[in-house]
Structure formats: structure tokens, C-alpha cells
């Protein structure tokens, strides 16, 4: 029977979080059956993009990785923390904001995979891809540990231990996944890389407009399991979902990669009802104080474009120019056409996936574009909004 442990933290300090991590792993039987002396153990946090503050539930806090790394080291194996952030995001910047430098100072390796040697990894019977564009380190790892943070996601309902594996493929393939089918795509990664363990950071989780712009949830838990499907099923129940609503978990269970039925999962430690709390879903969020406008994300739009557009809107709010969004239609992802009633001057087409529609609106170059180009695409030639947007280089290639 699959086991999932839930441990309540006694506080938010480094030592308290590390202690909860070690307890959670002990409750599922420790690492003896999966880690051997001399093994390379790749510890994969979620460092998708730099959050405004370190512990807001957007990225995995370093303490969780450190707790795992200490246990791995005690066993005579080599822990390596490795990640590639979302397409177009500088991983080193997230490492810095996340204070992962503290782990480096202790002598542990923290690797930006985007700068590492690439390797192709064969996918047997993949639904979306037959090969992963990954890295030598991922291929060489004896053990992979997924270390997500519990949060909602505007595209996949939640992002947990299986979705977190997308950071183990390089940017071009990440973007392709969003066109071909990200849900089955990440299950292809799970099926191929077979992570042995997940340790989930639910100390400060995130609800609402995840994966970056949501609101922190002070949940105070760590989850661990050697069955990633079971861990994601339990976490989604804690967050107020039926596990089958989370299609990544459902598809992984349908492929026989783990247990989704809560009745067949043994919970160790704290019971679910003691920590359960309904998370606000991304689709239930309105961006406060922003006037009426249309945001059209095609289902093939990558995290890169989605985050950039949302981040650009947040930038406009901070600069008090959000009124310029009124009546606009902002489109990202491979949409075949613009809504017929749209006026050309109100349409903003974000990213190279919609370049073919450039005659129907303002096209913003990039894959993904940067925030400032998106803002400039929205504000157009409004010199009165001043400063940086009016003087930036052109947004169209
Ligand atoms: S333009 Fe955006 S949605 Fe299209 S592939 Fe690039 S990042 Fe993805």
C-alpha cells in the first residue's frame, strides 16, 4: 500500500522545517531502500520564476532541500540540487531570491541545469514525446527526488510533485509540451525518469493566481511519499480538490504509475482532516483594481507567456497605469484567429505563436516576450504614461 506522511511543522525557522522534513521521510520508512552509498541523488525543487519575496509559496524554500540533502549525505551518497526555471527565466536569479546560496555555502551543489551539458533521454511508449531534451546530470542520477511547493496553477489546477518534473527538460521542449499537451507530457517525464521520492513543501503554500502571483497560505506541513501519484492525490484533497479533477494525477494513475484512490493510501502522521483547507482556485480570482479587459490564453500557451502577461499586468498596477487595459483583448498561445468582434487597436498578440495574426492587432515579439514589451504592446504610443514604456525599443520583430 502506498504511504504518504503528513507532518505539521512546529514553526518557520530553518531547523524546524528541516526537522519536519526528516520526520516526514522517517514516517515513510526512511531512505534506506532507495539511496545507496555512492549514489548521485538529484533533488529537484520548484524554482519556476523569481517571486517578490522568498517564502510566499511560489518556490520551494531551500530548507526543505537542505533537510533531504543532509540525510542523503549521511548515507554516503551525493546530493545535488538542480533545476531549470520556466522557459525564458534565469534560474540563477531564482536561486538568488530563494537564498539557495546558503546551501552552496555549506558545500552542497546547487546547479542551474540551463548551463549544464545536455543529453537526450529515450522515452519508451511516450504519449507526447519519444525523447526528453534533458541533461547529462539527470541521466546520470541514481535517484531523483521531486521537491515541489503546494500551489494552485492557472492551467493545471494545482502544481505538485509530478508537474514539478517539467524543470528537468530544457526550454524549447517545455514550450513544445504546451502545444502538444502538457498534462500527458509531464506524465511522460514521470514514466521515464521514475523519481523515487517526493517531499512537498506545504509550510507556506499558495492559492489563487498560481504559479507565481497567488496568495500565500500558512499551511505549516511537509508531505512525503515514495509514490508521487499518491502524494499528489493526498495534497490535492488537502487543498480541496477531488484528486480526479487534477488531470495530471488522473492520467498518471491511469498509466499505472501510482495510487490515486485515497482509500488505498496509508496516511502516516497527521490526518488529512486536521490540515485540510480549501484553496482558492486560479479561475476564481479577479485581479483587483484592474478594469474590464479580455485575457485569452489558448490552452497551448506556455507558462512563460502566461506568467509574462500576468506579470506585465502586475507591473501596470504598480505603475498606476492599469486603466490602459480597459477594453483590450490580450491573447497568448497558438490561437488560430482573433475573436471576430475585436477592434484591431484593442488587440494585443503576445508571443511568436500568434505572429500569424499580426494584421489583427499589436504583435509583441518573443518566445516568451519580456514584460516590458507586453506592457508597451498594451499602452501603445501613450507617451503620457511616460518613463520606461515610451522609450523602450520596438516590440515587433
Ligand atoms: S510564444 Fe509563448 S506560448 Fe508560444 S511557444 Fe513561445 S512561450 Fe510558448
Instruction: Please provide the count of β strands.
Output: 16
The proportion of residues forming helix, as a percent range, comes to 25-40%
State the CATH topology of the largest domain.
Rossmann fold
The poorly predicted ranges are: none
Q: What is the CATH class name of the largest domain? A: Alpha Beta
Give the distinct bound molecules: iron/sulfur cluster
Shape: globular
CATH superfamily of the largest domain: LarA, N-terminal domain
Biggest pleated sheet: 10 strands, mixed
Series of H and E elements:
EHEHEHHEEEHEEEHHEEHHEHEHEEEHH
Annotated CATH architecture of the largest domain: 3-Layer(aba) Sandwich
* Derived structural class: alpha/beta
Portion of residues in beta strands equals: 15-25%
Number of domains: 2
User: What Rg, in angstroms, do the CA atoms define?
Assistant: 21 Å
End-to-end separation: 56 Å
Mean pLDDT: 92
Number of helices in the DSSP assignment:
13
Protein model, in words:
- There is one protein chain.
- The protein has 397 residues and is of the alpha/beta class.
- The chain folds into two domains: 2-275, LarA, N-terminal domain (Rossmann fold), CATH 3.40.50.11440; 286-391.
- 30% of the residues lie in helices and 22% in strands.
- The protein is built from 13 helices and 16 strands.
- It has helices at residues 14-27, 62-74, 91-97, 101-105, 136-140, 171-180, 182-193, 228-238, 247-254, 272-275, 303-318, 371-379, 387-391, and strands spanning 2-8, 40-45, 78-83, 109-112, 118-122, 131-135, 143-147, 149-153, 157-159, 197-207, 215-225, 265-269, 294-297, 329-332, 347-350, 362-364.
- The strands form three sheets. Strands 1, 2, 3, 4, 7, 8, 9, 10, 11 and 12 form a ten-stranded mixed β-sheet that branches.
- Strand 2, helix 2 (62-74) and strand 3 (78-83) form a beta-alpha-beta unit.
- The N and C termini lie far apart (56 Å).
Amino acid at each position: 500500500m502506498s504511504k504518504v506522511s503528513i507532518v505539521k511543522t512546529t514553526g518557520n525557522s530553518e531547523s524546524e522545517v528541516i526537522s519536519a522534513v526528516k520526520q516526514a521521510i522517517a514516517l515513510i520508512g526512511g531512505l534506506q531502500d532507495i539511496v545507496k552509498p555512492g549514489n548521485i541523488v538529484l533533488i529537484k525543487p520548484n524554482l519556476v520564476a523569481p517571486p517578490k519575496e522568498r517564502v510566499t509559496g511560489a518556490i520551494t524554500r531551500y530548507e526543505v532541500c537542505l533537510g533531504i540533502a543532509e540525510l542523503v549525505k549521511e548515507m554516503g551518497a551525493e546530493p545535488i540540487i538542480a533545476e531549470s526555471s520556466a522557459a525564458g527565466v534565469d534560474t540563477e536569479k531564482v536561486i538568488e531570491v530563494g537564498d539557495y546560496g546558503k546551501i552552496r555555502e555549506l558545500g552542497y551543489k546547487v546547479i542551474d541545469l540551463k548551463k549544464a551539458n545536455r543529453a537526450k533521454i529515450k522515452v519508451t511508449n511516450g504519449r507526447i514525446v519519444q525523447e526528453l531534451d534533458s541533461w547529462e546530470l539527470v541521466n546520470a542520477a541514481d535517484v531523483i527526488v521531486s521537491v515541489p511547493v503546494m500551489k494552485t496553477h492557472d492551467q493545471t489546477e494545482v502544481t505538485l510533485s509530478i508537474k514539478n518534473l517539467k524543470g528537468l527538460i530544457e526550454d524549447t521542449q517545455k514550450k513544445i509540451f504546451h502545444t502538444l499537451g502538457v498534462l500527458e507530457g509531464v506524465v511522460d517525464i514521470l514514466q521515464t525518469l521514475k523519481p523515487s521520492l517526493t517531499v512537498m513543501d506545504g509550510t507556506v503554500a499558495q492559492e489563487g493566481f498560481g504559479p507565481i502571483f497567488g496568495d500565500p497560505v500558512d499551511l505549516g506541513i511537509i508531505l512525503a511519499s515514495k509514490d508521487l501519484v499518491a502524494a499528489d492525490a493526498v495534497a490535492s484533497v488537502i487543498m480541496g480538490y477531488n484528486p480526479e479533477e487534477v488531470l495530471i494525477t488522473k492520467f498518471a494513475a491511469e498509466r499505472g504509475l501510482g495510487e490515486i484512490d485515497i482509500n488505498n493510501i496509508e496516511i502516516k502522521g497527521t490526518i488529512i482532516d486536521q490540515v485540510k483547507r480549501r484553496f482558492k482556485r486560479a479561475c476564481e480570482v479577479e485581479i483587483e483594481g484592474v478594469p474590464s479587459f479580455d485575457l485569452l490564453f489558448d490552452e497551448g500557451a506556455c507558462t512563460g507567456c502566461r506568467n509574462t502577461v500576468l506579470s506585465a499586468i502586475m507591473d501596470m498596477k504598480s505603475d498606476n497605469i492599469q486603466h490602459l487595459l480597459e477594453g483590450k483583448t490580450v491573447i497568448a498561445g497558438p490561437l488560430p484567429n482573433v475573436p471576430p468582434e475585436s477592434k484591431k487597436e484593442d488587440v494585443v498578440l503576445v508571443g511568436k505563436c500568434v505572429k500569424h495574426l499580426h494584421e489583427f492587432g499589436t504583435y509583441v515579439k518573443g518566445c516568451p516576450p519580456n514584460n516590458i514589451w507586453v506592457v508597451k504592446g498594451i499602452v501603445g504610443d501613450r507617451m503620457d504614461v511616460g518613463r520606461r514604456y515610451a522609450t523602450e525599443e520596438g516590440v515587433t520583430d
